[in-house]
Amino acid sequence: MAQRILKLVRSDELRRSKSDKLIANYIERNLADIPFETARSIATRLEVSPMTVGRYLRRMGFDGLDELKLELRRDGSNNPAWQVKGSVGRLRDDNREGKLLAGLIQQQIDNLGMIYELTTAPEWQQAIDALIAASEVYVAAYQNVRGIAQYFASQLSYTRSRVQFVDGLNGTYAELLDGSVEGRVLFLHDVRRFAAKARPLAEEARRAGVKVILFTDEFCPWAPEVSDICLVVPGSHGPLWDGAATTVAVMDLLLSNIIVVLGDEVGERVAQLTRLQNVFGDFED
């Protein structure tokens, strides 16, 4: 599939004008970076308008950049979980000049700014209500976001009872899927490169009557198909691997919102857990 895209951008038909050549050359030289771009970011780099990029993509046969990204995802060769994007030599030069870290900081700031839009979306309140009302909450994640999800499960357990991280090592997820208790919620965290078990788990959970909250990034092509509530955060667009700052910030805001809604109930639970920690000597005096 990547070869088909390269053949397209190298064709005379798609290299007629100056802007055609700019966009074609950019796609050809930065194909591995396209999943981390937007039409606007490409336009900014090339000093053309987003409309110019959009028209070019339509001439390629894609209804926008998302369709091009989807074809690249199907190819599977441009979507590792940890990827250093760009020339290592260039990254070293940028680091010496202070550009690399400055760019990464700005990306984190931009992403954190976008979180506000998520917190004002209907899905946000739906997620809060579901996590509070659930009879049991199960949290699942894989690979390099597993630890972040375990953190969320641990923190959520301070706000309410019956919260469990499920690792799937029993091969069945029976504790989630056995149907013995109604009103269960699965909080599934998965970002690119998407885990092979994530989608089947979401599908089986919904089949078993479990409400699915999917916390993912903008690169997930199947999110609406397998979730009842979908929380989408920006994916990585920087020159290095995916960072966790945006994800952790969203989880902390979810927890804060739940604490505000539950009020005194949280205080009572924390007091109970603190007493138990003292009984079993988990912390220094």
TrEMBL record:
Cited Pfam families: HTH_6 (PF01418)
Flavoprotein among keywords: no
Record Gene3D superfamilies: Glucose-6-phosphate isomerase like protein, domain 1 (3.40.50.10490), Winged helix-like DNA-binding domain superfamily/Winged helix DNA-binding domain (1.10.10.10)
Species annotation: Ensifer adhaerens (Sinorhizobium morelense)
Descriptive protein name: MurR/RpiR family transcriptional regulator
InterPro entries: Homeodomain-like_sf (IPR009057), HTH_RpiR (IPR000281), RpiR-like (IPR047640), SIS_dom_sf (IPR046348), WH-like_DNA-bd_sf (IPR036388)
All copies of domain HTH rpiR-type, residue ranges: 3-79
Sorted UniProt keywords: Plasmid
Keyword NAD on entry: no
